[in-house]
Amino acid sequence: MAFSRRKFLLGTGVIGGGLVLGLSLRDNSVPYPAAIEGSFNPNAWLQITEDGQFVFQLHKTEMGQGVIGSLPAILCEELDLDPQRLTIQHAGIHPDFADPSTGGQMTGGSTSVKASYDILRDVGAAARAMLIAAAANRWQQNADDCTTDNGVVIDANGTQRLSYTELANDAKSYLDTPYVLKAAKDFRYIGKAETRPDALQKSTGTAQFGVDIDLPNLKTAVVVRCPHFGGTIASWDASSIDSLPGIIAVKEIHSGIAIVADTYWQARKAAGQLVISWDKGPMADMDSAKIKQQQRDLIANEKPRVMMEEGDTSAVWDSAATIIEADYSVPFTHHSPMEPQNATAIATERDGEMTMEMWIPSQSPDLSRAVAAHFTSLTAPQITVHTTLMGGGFGRRGYPDFAGEAAAIAEQLPSVAVKLLWSREDDMQHDYYRASSEHRLKAALDEDGQLIAWDHTLVASSIIKTMAVFMAANLLPDWVPASVAESMGKSAGGLIANYDPIPCEGAKIPYQAPNITVGHLEYDSGVPTGFWRSVGFSYNIFVVESFIDELAHKASADPLAFRQRYLDKDSQWRSVLDLAAEKANWGQSQPGIFQGIAVSEPFSSFCAMVVDVSIDPDGKNYTIEKVVAAVDCGIVIDPDVIEAQMEGGIIYALSAAVKAPVSFKDGATVESNFHDLPVIRMNEIPKRIEVYTIKSDNSPTGIGEIGVPALAPALANALFAATGQRLRDLPLRLT
Amino acid sequence: MTSFILNGENISVDAEPDTPILWVLRDHLNKTGTKFGCGAGLCGACTVLLDGQATRSCLLPLATAAGKRIDTIEGLGGDHVVQQAWVENNVPQCGYCQSGQIMSTVALLATNPSPSEDEIKTALAGNICRCGTYPRILKAVKQAASSSFYDASQSPDGSAS
Ligand code: FES
Ligand code: FES
C-alpha cells in the first residue's frame, strides 16, 4: 500500500528557524509544541536534531496505562528506529493531537492506541521516506533501492550508511516523498515486550509527578471547600490563622478558601483552624437512602427511553413458560488515584498583560487550560500548560477542577509560584464518583429453556451532563465570557443528556434473543459523577452477565453453554469466551473450587473471565483461587502492557466489587480516607491471575479499562455456584 | 534546628517540631521520591526507614526523628537489587506508590532475606497500589530475595554489597 503523504501533510510553515510541516487538517498555523530550533520536525510528534536527539511528543497522558511505551513503538516501527533511543516528552496542546471524535486532547475511553495507530504509522513512515530520499540524493541512487536499519539509511549495495541525524537537515527538502507502510509480518517493535521507558525513574523516586514540580520560591496552597454539594460559604474569618508560621495569604476563590503557605504542613494545619461556616445549599437533606429510593421510584413509575429494541417483549410475557425477574443495584464508588489532585501555576504580569504557566497532572490538558481560563480573567492563549506524569487517573483526572483552583489562586498572587495540593480527604469527598445505578430485569424462557425475551430497565445518571460545562469552556471561543460559557454548557448538557448513550454502555446484550428491550431512565442526584474506569460497562456488565447466569441456572443449562448458544460461533465474543473457558478448565474444577464466567465488549475490545473461588469454613469469607482472562484487543502493541493492564484492571475492579461504597449524608460524602473507603491490598489479591490474548490482525483497540467489567459478574457467578446465594447488589457480600 | 541522619548524611532542618518527616523531606529538603498518598498512615506511599524499620513518614514528627537514621528511596542509589528487580519485572504502572513499596521491601528483606509468599503479602499489606501492580511486586520481591545480595551469609540489615 502506498499512500501519498499529501493525504496528511497539507501545509508547511517556517517556525523558529526550523522547517515545520503542518499535519493538521484543521489548523496548521499553530506552531508545534516544544519545537527545537533547526531540527527536522516532519510532524507534530517527532523531531530529529543534528546533534543526534530523537524527541517524541507524547500526545496522550501517561497515568500508568503505558502509552509512554506503546505510542512511540508504533511510530518507531515505521520510522525504523529503536524506541529506546527516543526522548519522550509529554506534549503541549496542539490541534494535531486532538481526537477527531471529541475535538479534544483527552486521554480516556481506552482510545489512545486505537485512535493513534494509523496516524502514528503514517507519520513514522512518511518521515522515513523523507530521510531515505535525502540519502538517495546524496548517493545519487534510486531511493527504492535503499533500506534502513534502526536509525540508519543503507545504500543499494549495502556499503554506504548515513544516520538519520546526519540526514535531518537534508530531509527537510523531501516533503512530497510517497511512503509505504510495513507489512505486519515485518514488525520488529510492535508486538514485542519492552521495558517501560519510565520503569527506572519510577523505581528510583526520580519520576516527576505533578506533586513533585519545583519552582523557585514555590508556595503550597490548600483549599477549604464546602463539604455539602452545591453549598456555599456563609461566613469566614482568617484572623486566627493569618499570623501562623509560614502563612502567605488567605484568599477566597470560586470553590472555597485558599490558604497559601511556605509548606504543605503549614497550610494544612492552618486549614484546620480556619473559622468558617457553611450554607449547606439545596442538597442539604440528600442522603444515600433517598437516592436509592428515588431511583427505585423512577423504575417503578416512569417509562424509560428505549435504547435497544428487537421484536416485542411485551407480546411474550403472557405466553412464556417461565418468567424470571430480578432487581440489581450498583453503588457510588470513588477513583482514588494514589497521587492526590494537584496543579501548579504562576501568573506573570508584564506591560499590563497577565500570562500564566501551569503544570498539571491531567488527562485533558486542553480542558484544563479552558477551565483555568474560565476561573480567571485570562484567556486560553495566555495560559501555557505542561502535562506531568500522573499518579493514576482512572477517569478522575479528566475533570480538571483542580486546575481551575490553582489558576484562580495564582491569579490573585502574581509572580508567586503556587502548588495547589489536595488532601486524600479532599480527593475522596470531592470526587466525580462513578454514579450509582438501579436495574430491573425480566426475561422469558420457553418450554425448552430457550431465551425468548430480555427486558432491562436501568436508572443511571448522564456523564456528559457534568462534563458539558467543562467542554463548553473548552470548545467555545475565548471571547465568550466565562459566565456565558458556563450557562451554555449547562443547557447543552441538558440537551445532550437526553441522548447520552454512555450510561447504557454494555447494556446492549450480544445474546441473540428474538425479543429484547433495553430502556434507560436518566436520574441526577446532584452528586458530581463522572467517568470511572470502564464507565457504563462497569455496572451494566455486572448486571447483564449476572442475570444471564440466573437464566442459565433456571434453564438447567451450563452457564458457558447457555451463553454460547446465543452467540455467533465466529464472533469475537465466542473466541474470548471459549478461550477463557478452555484455559480455566471450565467445568472440571477440583472439589471445593467453584467457577463463574462472564464476557464483555468494553470499548471495542473483548474480554471474558473465569473466576475460581473456594469458600472458607465460616461460609461467609472466600478465597479467589484464580482469575483467567481472555482478551481480544486486535494487534498487540506490547504484550507486557496488555498483561499489566489486565492484572491492574482486575484488581481495581475487585476493590469496587467487594469493598465499601461511597455514601452520603446531609448532602456530603460520609467517608474520607482509606480506613472507611478501603481498597484491595497485597494480602487480598487473587492467588493467581492468568491473561491470554487472542492473536489478531485487526487494528488495535484499547486495553486500559478492558479488565474491569467482567470481574464482578464472574466473581458473583462463582459465589452463586459455591453457595447458591445470588448476589444482586455490589459490593458482593455473602450472608 | 533539628538534626537527623538522612541517607547517611547529617542533616539539620529548621521546621516546626511537629512537621511530619514526609514534609520535611519534600518541602524542606526537596527530596521528592517519598510520596504523599493519604497523610494518615493508611497507604504506605510515604514509607521510609527509621533506624532500619519501615515507617510511615506522614505520621513521623520531626522531633521524634531527631538524632535518628532515616533512609529514603534516594538513598538506595538507583541500582539496589530491589530496584533492579522492579525494573526487570516492569513493576510500575503509574509508579506513584512504588517508592513506598520498595522501601517496605528493603525493610522486609533486611530482617527476613527469604520470606514466604504469605510473609511478603503481610509485610506489604500496608502499601496500597491503586494500579494493581501487586502480582508483579510479589514476583519482584521474590526475585530480589533470591539474588546473592540477600544470601544468608550477607549482613542481615541488607547493607552488604
Ligand atoms: S501518606 Fe503516609 S501512609 Fe499514606
Ligand atoms: S503503580 Fe500506580 S499506585 Fe502503584
Task: Please give a structural write-up.
The complex is a heterodimer of chains A (735) and B (161). Chain A has 735 residues and is an alpha+beta fold. Chain A folds into three domains: 5-202, Aldehyde Oxidoreductase, domain 4 (2-Layer Sandwich); 211-281 and 341-421, 2-Layer Sandwich (Aldehyde Oxidoreductase, domain 4); 290-332 and 434-462 and 500-723, 2-Layer Sandwich (Aldehyde Oxidoreductase, domain 4). Helix content of chain A is 28%, strand content 23%. In chain A, the strands form nine sheets. A seven-stranded mixed β-sheet of chain A has the order 13-14-11-21-18-19-20. A five-stranded mixed β-sheet of chain A has the order 16-24-23-22-17, sandwiched between helices. A four-stranded mixed β-sheet of chain A has the order 25-26-27-30. Chain B is built from six helices and five strands. Helices cover 33% and strands 13% of the residues of chain B. Chain B is globular, with a radius of gyration of 15 Å. Chain B folds into two domains: 2-74, Roll (Ubiquitin-like (UB roll)), CATH 3.10.20.30; 76-154, DNA polymerase, domain 1 (Orthogonal Bundle), CATH 1.10.150.120. The interface between A and B is large, with 63 and 59 residues. The structure holds FE2/S2 (inorganic) cluster (FES) (2 copies). One FE2/S2 (inorganic) cluster sits between chains B (92-98, 129-131, 133) and A (64, 338, 392).
Shape of chain B: globular
- Helicity of chain A, as a percent range: 25-40%
Q: What is the CA-CA span between the terminal residues of chain B?
A: 34 Å
Structural class of chain B: alpha+beta
Q: List the uncertain runs of chain A.
A: 1-28
What's the tally of helices of chain B?
6
Q: Report the CATH topology name of the largest domain in chain B.
A: DNA polymerase, domain 1
Major beta sheet summary of chain B: 5 strands, mixed
Give the tally of β-strands of chain A. Answer: 30
Query: What average pLDDT do the residues of chain B reach?
Result: 94
CATH architect. name of the largest domain in chain B? Orthogonal Bundle
Main β-sheet, spatial strand arrangement of chain A: 13-14-11-21-18-19-20
Major β-sheet profile of chain A? 7 strands, mixed
